[in-house]
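Re: that backbone. C-alpha cells:
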C-alpha cells in the first residue's frame, strides 16, 4: 500500500482500521488550533522549526522558476495578498506598521543629544529580533526565500473541502493538504514519529521529511527536505498500554535547527501541554490543552485538538518547551454519517480528553 493510499484511508475512515487502531481526534470545546508561527509562546515557535511533515516524494515536483526576492517589504507583502488567509495577511500588515514606527523611533534616537553612541549600540545588542526582521523572515518563507536555490512545488488545489467534503465553515478548510504524518528532530540526523506512520523499508524510501511547511508556503526549499535512510527502531502494539513509536535516521545531518529537548520530569494530571503538527496534512498548526490522565504505563491522555496527520507530533510542556510525548491516537474526527451534507468536525464540550500520547520517556534510546 503506497503512502497516498494510507493517507486517504486514514482520512476517509477512522484510523482505527489500521492494525494498531490509532483513532483520529475530536475538537474539545472550541477549536483552539492556530498557525504555528502565530502563537504567543516563543518556546513553541522555536520548537516548530524542528517539526517535520511526512510527505510522499512523488507529490513534490521541481520548479524551474525562481521567486523574485528583489522587492521591498511593502512590495513583497502586496505580492502575497490573496495568496495567504486574511488572518495571516493582517498579522504581516501589523508587523509592517510596527516596523515603520520602529524605524522612526530609531531615527529620532540617533538624532537625539540625550543618547551617546555607546548607549545606542548597547540598545541594539540587547534588542530582540526587530519587527522589520521578523516580517522579512516570514515573507522570505512565504515567497520561497533564496533566489536560484532549488525548490519544489506541490498541488495547492487539494483541500479538506475538495478532498473530503469538509464544511467550508470549518477552520482551515480551504488550506492545501500535503502530508500524512508528523515527526520531530531529536538528534542531528535522527527523527521520532509514531510507529504506525512508518511501517516498512518501502515507507522509508517513498516518504520525505519536510521542515517549515507553514501556512502560506507554496515552494519548499530543497534544503528543508530530508530523505529517510533507515528505521533505527520501531514498535507498534494494539493495546492502550502498548507502544507506538519509530526512530528514523535521515540521509544527512539537519542544519539550521535544533533537536527538541526531552523532558525528564514526571508528567502529572492537569499539566499544560501543546501539540505541534500537521492535522489532516495541513500546514503546521499548534494547539494547547492539558493532561487529563497519566498512568504508570507508557501512555497518557490529553484534550488536545488533533486530527489524523498529527500522528507523530511532539507534545510539549508549554512552560519548559520540552517534549513529554508523541501524539499517537484519539477519538473520531468526523461523524460517521453525513447524510449527503458537508462534514463537520466532531465536537465534545467536555474537558475530558481521549487523545492518546505515548510518553517520550517510554521510547528507548532517547
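Recovered sequence:
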Amino acid at each position: 500500500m503506497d503512502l497516498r493510499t494510507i493517507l486517504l484511508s486514514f482520512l476517509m475512515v477512522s484510523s482505527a482500521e489500521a492494525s494498531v487502531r490509532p483513532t483520529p481526534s475530536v475538537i474539545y470545546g472550541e477549536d483552539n488550533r492556530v498557525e504555528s508561527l502565530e502563537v504567543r509562546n516563543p518556546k513553541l515557535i522555536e520548537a516548530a522549526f524542528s517539526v517535520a511533515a511526512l510527505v510522499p516524494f512523488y507529490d513534490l515536483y521541481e520548479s524551474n522558476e525562481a521567486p523574485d526576492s528583489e522587492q521591498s517589504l511593502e512590495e513583497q507583502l502586496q505580492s502575497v495578498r490573496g495568496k495567504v488567509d486574511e488572518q495571516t495577511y493582517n498579522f504581516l500588515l501589523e508587523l509592517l506598521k510596527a516596523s515603520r514606527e520602529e524605524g522612526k523611533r530609531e531615527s529620532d534616537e540617533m538624532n537625539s543629544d540625550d543618547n551617546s553612541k555607546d548607549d545606542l549600540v548597547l540598545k541594539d545588542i540587547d534588542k530582540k529580533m526587530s519587527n522589520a526582521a521578523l516580517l522579512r523572515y516570514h515573507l522570505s518563507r512565504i515567497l520561497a526565500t533564496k533566489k536560484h536555490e532549488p525548490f519544489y512545488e506541490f498541488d495547492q488545489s487539494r483541500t479538506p473541502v475538495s478532498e473530503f467534503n469538509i464544511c467550508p465553515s470549518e477552520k482551515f478548510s480551504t488550506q492545501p493538504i500535503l502530508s500524512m504524518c508528523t515527526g520531530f528532530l531529536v538528534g542531528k540526523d535522527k527523527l521520532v514519529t509514531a510507529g504506525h506512520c512508518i511501517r516498512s523499508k518501502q515507507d522509508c524510501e517513498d516518504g520525505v521529511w519536510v521542515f517549515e511547511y507553514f501556512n502560506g508556503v507554496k515552494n519548499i526549499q530543497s534544503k528543508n527536505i530530508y530523505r529517510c535512510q533507515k528505521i533505527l527502531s520501531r514498535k507498534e502494539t494494539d493495546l492502550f498500554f502498548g507502544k507506538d513509536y519509530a526512530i528514523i535516521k535521515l540521509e544527512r545531518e539537519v542544519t539550521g535547527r535544533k533537536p527538541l529537548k526531552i523532558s525528564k520530569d514526571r508528567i502529572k494530571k492537569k499539566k499544560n501541554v501543546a501539540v505541534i503538527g500537521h492535522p489532516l496534512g495541513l500546514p503546521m498548526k499548534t494547539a494547547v490543552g492539558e493532561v487529563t490522565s497519566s498512568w504508570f504505563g507508557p501512555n497518557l491522555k490529553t484534550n488536545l485538538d488533533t486530527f489524523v496527520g498529527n500522528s507523530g507530533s511532539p507534545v510539549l510542556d508549554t512552560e519548559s518547551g520540552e517534549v513529554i510525548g508523541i501524539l499517537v491516537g484519539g477519538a473520531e474526527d468526523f461523524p460517521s454519517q453525513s447524510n449527503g451534507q458537508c462534514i463537520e468536525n466532531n465536537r465534545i464540550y467536555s474537558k475530558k480528553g481521549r487523545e492518546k500520547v505515548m510518553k517520550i520517556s517510554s521510547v528507548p534510546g532517547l
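The chain has two domains: 3-62+153-362, 73-142. The chain has a mean pLDDT of 80.
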